[in-house]
Design goal:
- The protein is α/β, with parallel strands linked by helices.
- The chain has 2 domains: 2-210, Formyl transferase, N-terminal domain (Rossmann fold, 3-Layer(aba) Sandwich); 219-294, Methionyl-tRNA Fmet Formyltransferase, Chain A, domain 2.
- 23% of the residues lie in helices and 28% in strands.
- It is built from 7 helices and 13 strands.
- The strands form 2 sheets. Strands 3-4-2-1-5-6-7-8 form an 8-stranded mixed β-sheet, with helices on one face.
- A hairpin with a 3-residue loop joins strand 12 and strand 13.
- Helix 1 packs across helix 6 (174-196) and helix 5 runs antiparallel to helix 7.
- The protein is elongated.
Length: 296
């Protein structure tokens, strides 16, 4: 079974690809497609020939793919007709996607004879969209999941093939959470691809009535009011938010932008709304104090 891997360099997709490369299954990875943003002076699309070598460290998908002996395509427009035509020549049976910043077109979704599978870092149908981790922490969640689902032209919408939860470590950065999700995605994908090599995949239709959205956060989405937060939830959010958009708060028309959460003191109360000690902002929450490092 010939499999294509779609992703973007960073802390998520490379962990999943590395797992698949280091734990071969009953499938063959034949092409890796890397999504990028347009860059002045660079070609919009470029194919890279395999250059077998020991797998490198780091989060660069192109290096991982070519070192593993896999042809690689870098593109800033995965739906371009030339890209679709080039991928059609790869005779792809099944494609997997681990983190991509745009929807796939109808023609692209048909370059793989058996369709596409996406690894989305949320318990679908909750938190559909590009930023589920940001919104999970904004909602005070202490857990997330990786969901493998069939892809169609709607965001994170197709049938669910597998879903496994994982706990969010207190004070974890966005990068650390994506790394945990990427490793889990790799394990789930290997199991599902091995199954797909022997049987047709069937999934569970998502309940659209339960669906929630996780759009890219705007500046106002990152604003917090400590009086409405539990202190542990606030320091967790302050730690993960800068990966997407730094959390911030306002006291008497003065904004404070946060670098990360530091610690909590349950049950304590301040004599004022906040206290500043060096670069540390201490704020009163519902159940105690949150210690937050400010951007300076």
């Amino acid at each position: 079974m010939r499999v294509a891997f779609f992703g973007q360099s960073g802390p998520y997709a490379p962990l999943a690809l590395r797992y698949l490369l280091q734990n071969p299954g009953e499938f063959e990875l034949v092409v890796v497609v890397v999504g990028t943003r347009p860059s002045p002076g660079k070609a919009d699309h470029r194919w890279y020939a395999p250059k077998p070598a020991p797998l490198p460290e780091g989060e660069d998908l192109i290096s991982l793919a070519t070192s593993a002996g896999i042809v690689c395509l870098r593109t800033c427009d995965v739906n371009d007709s030339g890209v679709v035509a080039g991928l059609a020549k790869q005779r792809i049976d099944l494609a997997v996607c681990v983190g991509f910043d745009r929807l796939f077109s109808h023609p692209l979704l048909h370059v793989a004879g058996r369709g596409f599978i996406n690894a989305h870092p949320s318990p679908l149908p909750l938190l559909r969209g590009p930023s589920p981790i940001f919104w999970a922490l904004k909602q005070g969640r202490r857990d997330l999941a990786v969901t493998l689902h069939g892809m169609d032209e709607r965001a994170d919408h197709g049938p669910i093939f597998a879903q496994t939860g994982f706990a969010l470590t207190p004070l974890a950065s966005g990068e650390a959470i994506f790394q945990a999700a990427g490793s889990l995605a790799g394990r789930l994908l290997r199991t599902l691809l091995n199954r797909a090599a022997h049987e047709a995949l069937t999934g569970t239709v998502q309940d659209d009535s339960r669906a929630t959205r996780a759009p890219r956060p705007k500046p106002e989405d990152a604003q917090v009011d400590p009086r409405a937060w539990r202190c542990q939830d606030l320091v967790n959010f302050a730690s993960v938010a800068p990966f997407f958009r730094a959390a911030w708060l306002r006291f008497h028309d003065e904004p404070f932008f946060l670098r990360r959460g530091l610690r909590v003191e349950q049950g304590r109360r301040l004599p004022a709304e906040y206290v500043i000690e060096g670069s540390t902002l201490i704020v009163q929450c519902l159940d105690g104090l949150a210690y937050l490092e400010m951007q300076v």
